[in-house]
Fold this sequence. Notes:
Layout: H1 10-25, H2 31-38, E1 43-45, E2 52-56, H3 65-78, E3 83-85, E4 91-96, H4 101-109, E5 127-128, H5 143-153, E6 168-171, E7 185-192, E8 195-202, E9 214-221, H6 225-239, H7 250-257, H8 259-273, H9 302-312, E10 313-315, E11 321-326, E12 332-333, H10 335-345, E13 353-355, E14 361-367, H11 371-381, H12 390-393, E15 395-396, H13 410-422, E16 436-439, E17 453-462, E18 465-474, E19 488-494, H14 498-511, H15 517-520, H16 522-534
Parallel strand pairs: 5-6, 6-7, 15-16, 16-17
Antiparallel strand pairs: 1-2, 2-4, 3-4, 3-12, 7-8, 8-9, 10-11, 11-14, 13-14, 17-18, 18-19
Amino acid sequence: MLHIRLPENLDQEINELDEHIRRYQSGLIPSTELKARRVPFGVYEQRQADTYMVRVRCPGGVITPKQLKAVADLSVKYGQLPLHITTRQEIQLHDVTLSNLVPMMRDLKQFGLSTRGGGGNTVRNVIIQEDAGVDPQEIFDVTPYAMALTERLIDEPDSWTLPRKFKVAFSGSTEDKGLAKVADVGFIATTQGGQRGFIVYVAGGLGAKSDVSKKLFDFIPDSQVYAVVHAVKLLFWKQGNRKNKHAARLRFLWTKLGEEVFIRTFQEYFQLAKDRPPLNLPLIENHAADVPSLIRPSVQDKKDYTLWKKRFVSTQKQPQHVSILVPIEFGFLDHTFTAKLALFLEPFGENTLRFTKNQNMIIRNIHEKYLPAVYQFLLDNQANFNRPAILDTLISCAGASTCQLGLCLSRGAAKAVIDRLQSSSLPLDELADVRIHFSGCPNSCGQHPIADLGFFGKAGRQKGIIFPAYNVVAGARIGKGDRAQLAEVVGEISAKDVPSLIEESLAAFCKAGMTREFWQGNGKETVSRLCETHS
């Protein structure tokens, strides 16, 4: 089975949450006491009164077709808005009422799914590169480590009572497509003397005060992954700041203790943790089931089909197998399309889907002979499935539309950008790898610190008038090299001028030769000057 074993005490914890909800509804406990219980279950209040967003854990973005179909069905049964893919490779249900929370959680559990750890001061969803196991350039598949580590961590009581959120990431190569260098604990696959292992980074992360991770080990054998995470988690649990949540992340503990004391204390816990059993890695196979009924001889519009393959189809390291990116604007999934996709993929087997960190989906492990069938399915069921990828890899958080912390309507600004780019003369297909990210406030939910060109909301002021505006950042470097580089603030701009700024910045990028180094060098100066022209 391609899903984790849920904790044995999950039923008991759901029952306890149910009791707290009943007591709150009877006026016996305040909303703050209920919040302390529901948030670790991934339940967040929306702006609309008495409605909640519920986040479902999907380790490494893994979800089976049957599980996806179940979530689609439950979104109809309990929610209203579309499903939503997150930047941590999870899926969210929206507009769930308080009375429906526990019934929904019990239904999810029947399909091996849980919301536990979807929020609060907990071990959050473990992320990996979305093409793990099929990437021709990876050292080895990191998916089994993410699955096994998740299963171990969510079964430990201290994973739910941390000073603040705790995030783990895996990458299969030094390209760091899993964002290991901006995680509380990050692992990058490597080998030494023929033995599998990892380069380890710690104490990074995104937020109001983002920071890159610091290298902890040049190499550990893969048998020590759990020991490393356990030791870091225990250090954080014992010495993290529990009084001020704004200074409670692991990266602040690194600063407080200093590198020498942090590492020495970690080593004390690590030596003890080495005696614990290593992870029990699941066997995950990457191959396609044979579904002869879905073989199609051809497609009607060969030109459109060829363009679609160029945009969204990637060759796997498994011979004659491919992966297909399914673009989802801002990660919003219509439940009807979602259910149909799940049913279409079910005959191919369990290992055919991953959620991506840019809020899209990847269909994987499909023999190339089925590509016409996949294309036809998307053509029949999904609008805008074959437009330039940059329009759907653009990331935006919810912003003020639903988030209580949002300062700006970040999705509205991002939508205006999409419209502007579609009407531009820019070579959009050649810009597929440009990272454009929006956050509605400084909290980095839209991951603006790792953008080539990013924005985070603020209140602009001019002549006593307050208006929606954005700080503009540029120049993140995520990939090869020992140390990542976060984007830097290069200016500010009113919300209405954001589409023009992005179009002009991309035009300058094209003129400069479209190398990523542009954003770390002259590009930052260019974007800064463009901000000034719009001020």
